[in-house]
Amino acid sequence: MNDNIFGSAARKRILSFIIIGFTAIIIAQLFNMQIVNAPTYEVRSDENSVKPIYQTAPRGILFDRNQEVLVGNKPSFTLRITPSEYQDTLTPYIETILGVDSGYVHKILKANNTYSKYIPRRIAKDVDFKVIAWYEENAAKLPGVDYVMETQRDYSFGVMGAHMFGYAREIPLSILQKRKNEYSMGDEIGFAGLEKTYEDILRGKKGVHYVLVDSRQKTIGKYKSGEEDYSAVKGYDLILSIDKAAQKVAEDAFKERRGAVVAIEPSTGEIIAFTSSPQFDPAEFAAVTSYENYKAMRDNPDKPLLNRATTGYYSPGSTFKMISAVAGLEEGLIDETTRIPCNGGFQFGDRFFKCLHNHGSTDVETSIEKSCNTFYYSLVNKLGLDRWSTYSKKFGFGRKTSVDLGEEGRGIVPSEEYYNKVYGKRGWTKGFVISLGIGQGELSVTPIQMAQYAALFANYGKSANPHFLKAYIDTKTRVRTDVKPQYYDIGISRHSFEIVRHAMWKVVNGAGTAGNIRSTDLDISGKTGTAQNPHGKDHAIFVGFAPYNNPKIAIAVIVENAGFGSVAAAPIARDVIAAYMRKALPNQPVTIAEAD
Amino acid sequence: MKINYNIQDRFDLAVFLPVVVLIAFGLIAIYSSTLNLPSARGDFFKQVVFVGVSFFTFLLFYSLPHQTIKLIAIPLYSVSIFFLIAVLVVGKTVYGAKSWFGIGGFGFQPSELAKAGTILMLAYWLTYKSRDINNLKDLTIALGIGIVPIMLIMLEPDMGTSIVFGLVTLTLVFWSGISLFGLFVVLSPGFVIFASLFGTISFIGALLLIIAALFFFKRDLFNSITVFVINLASGFFFDFVFKILKPHQQKRIESFLDPTADPLGAGYNALQAKVAIGSGGLYGKGFLNGNQTQLRFIPKQWTDFIYSVIGEEFGFIGSVLVVILFAVIFIRLLNIASLAKDKFSVLIVVGVLSLLFSHFALNIGMDLGITPVIGLPLPFLSYGGSSLLVNMMLIGLVLNIYRNRKLHT
């Protein structure tokens, strides 16, 4: 054996070098992992084991202008299935207890199969307590099935208001993909109406508590002893301008009819009552609604999903005469003394435009009171299309009212440009314009535009955009924030308004067409109208306001296929006004006016 | 030189104290990683018992008369080999390897005992009379002493322990003064095997390099051809061994070569261990607060992945402390080797050093992703009675050698 080599200093140095070198590498790698890259590893570690459990936030409550609840919340049981643990053999039992068709559970699970199988799916919302009792009894035999208490919209406060309140529903995949940062699967989202408009403040803030799960997703305990958890915060309560009493009267009046009512506080644009009929039951959307339910509603010939009040197009009929009157007065074509003879019609070229009566020599006030057509054929002929159209637009027709509901129609106010486009430059005659004077022809308005129109007469051309939201209340601070409407003035002289307003007063309180709703107590002014309807019986229309001095409410009522405006529409307006003014209904026999 | 009879003179605290601290660290980490696992809850208490027994063993081997060490070399080695054969016949299969004897509630791993047996046997053989490590016959027998347990352990199969035996044998041969050519002959088959893992082309490339090296050494034709044939044969032999390996072992080798290939299989544990250590940061998440550990993301963490518990819960500071304690032990062992009275003792110390260092480097290296994922315990820290017992027995022998060191330099 070579003594010089055995354990030589050189070999000892090599071993020392290996030991120190490797130790240095280890420390360097530790530094790299635990100091330099620690944040990356921390994220991965947390992703591994921390699971958030969300708690849905109750949506804000909708109150009326007197703080009465319109739409509330109620606790409800939601039955859920977590596919990772669920066994398909349980499906028949669950379908039987829920009382649903066979295949229901499978369909819901299939519709959601793109999500992680560890996430529970809502199978049925608002389930009966007997289902929960059954579940509790058999929980051990039902792996992957559970239930949670959630809050759900409660519509049992006496009004439906489906078209204004709208509804919230489980977020559809298509929207979820666009708004991934704000929502997650199973969240509710305001889908129509005010629920949609004010989604951001109504939805509240989801609560979350973090739990630690082990490598098999089993919950082990709280994460950081719950210090990063927070509870759900209810959405802001909304105070709407709706008056529950008036709203109820409006809805009840339309139980068997189709049409719309919009009532507005003239000075502020606040909407007092708003209904479109037929309605749908928003509670149906609060549950897990099947596509079939939705389709049935969509395909119903009465179109319950259509919001007639903002998207229904109607011919305004005689209610539009005031536009020509104001325009004539403002443009100096007539004054309060100007008289136009009515011989039962108006000859224009080779066409004769009829009036319902032979009114004789008529001034502007009588023309409105008695609804003389001849006066307006003649006036609009002098006025011309351009000026007529300009004044129509001043009163808000042909454009959106910017009400705080999602969908709204502009309506149609024909202009030269419009006719040129539709009929070609030579395809239309001046005769087209004549019938516009009495609100017929190619003129389309929405009920909310009509209500705004009534409000402008009530308040001498000054109002604000129609809106529902008066104020909202911060859930945490309880601070009330009032919403400032956009005030505007359409710039028409008070003198012109005084003449037309007085004529409108006479419609109800003189020898006018709406004498059937006369009431000294309510002191209503207004104008009836009958809109020709190519598809059936005429629509009845009434626009008006009350009381005459310092009006508190302006209203538009449209009853589809109901004939004369004074018969069908005016009494509804009167009843809504009475309810809002907290006055008793005058017990007066209905007299059918001869003309409107 | 005057003999100083204080305790440090007879008992090397520089080795003993780090060992005690590491064992304490191990108990803490075992406690933490089994706390939330009812099935392993008892392992902590078992380990406490093992610690007690192993300290007794330590004292036994520390106080053994120095001459008797030499006497137990051959019997210990023979018993080890006997057990290694027996375990293949009657052993209990744990995690796909037949490496355990079940005795009552406790298990016993003969490969652990074989570590002590082989170190003693090699030290005995290499220093018996006038061996020449550069003599082919002496070298072959020395390598044979190492290869017999290696082969038996490979059959269990336990890759990690086989590698450690290889490294220990190599270190002792190296320390004994093997020449550069000798080292080349010993190491080249390993190189060829490693190259063959990457496919036929690299296997042929490696063989070409061997031929080039043989020209460099300018040995005679017979020697050169012999070495080349050995290399060629070992390449084919390994291919044969690879095929008889259990699928999980093949996967481990493959996942080291390409860690992205199988993220949820063999690489998964290593990845989770890395996440645990990395997320520990500077100070760690605190005792019992490591979520990777407490939520059991790392299977059987208290055995082979014990270091990740320390990394996660005690952070960079704790991790480095453990590494430094080991480094202190290693450097101290190297010094004790120079102080030992005879070559036999020197080789025992160097053998223990290489054994502990191999475990340390391969275990922590695996946790940090710098060495392949092979199942090896971390000395003094990992749960396991046989391992702790044998390690403490070896530390006892080393301190025995220190106690009986050359008194004059």
Report on this structure:
The complex is a heterodimer of chains A (596) and B (409). Chain A has 596 residues and is α+β, with helices and mostly antiparallel strands. Chain A has two domains: 184 residues, Penicillin-binding protein 2a (Domain 2), CATH 3.90.1310; 310 residues, DD-peptidase/beta-lactamase superfamily (Beta-lactamase, 3-Layer(aba) Sandwich). In chain A, a hairpin with a 6-residue loop joins strand 22 and strand 23. Chain B is mainly alpha-helical and 409 residues long. Chain B has one domain. At the A-B interface, helix 1 and helix 2 of A face helix 7, helix 12, helix 13, helix 14 and helix 15 of B.
Q: Secondary-structure blueprint of this entry?
A:
The complex is a heterodimer of chains A (596) and B (409).
Chain A: H1 9-36, H2 38-49, E1 50-55, E2 62-63, E3 69-81, H3 91-98, H4 104-111, E4 121-124, H5 129-138, E5 145-154, H6 162-165, E6 167-170, H7 173-178, E7 188-192, H8 193-197, H9 199-202, E8 207-213, E9 219-222, E10 237-240, H10 244-253, E11 259-265, E12 270-277, H11 283-286, H12 291-299, H13 308-311, H14 321-330, E13 340-342, E14 345-348, E15 351-354, E16 360-362, H15 364-369, H16 373-394, H17 416-423, H18 431-436, H19 447-458, E17 462-464, E18 469-473, E19 480-482, E20 487-489, H20 494-509, E21 525-531, E22 539-546, E23 553-559, H21 565-581
Helix pairs in contact in A: 10-21, 14-16
Chain B: H1 7-10, H2 13-34, H3 41-63, H4 66-90, E1 92-94, E2 97-103, E3 106-108, H5 110-126, H6 136-155, H7 159-175, H8 180-196, H9 200-217, H10 221-244, H11 247-257, H12 266-280, H13 291-294, H14 306-339, H15 343-367, H16 385-403
Helix pairs in contact in B: 2-3, 2-14, 3-16, 4-5, 4-6, 5-6, 5-7, 5-15, 5-16, 6-7, 7-15, 8-9, 8-10, 9-10, 12-14, 14-15, 15-16
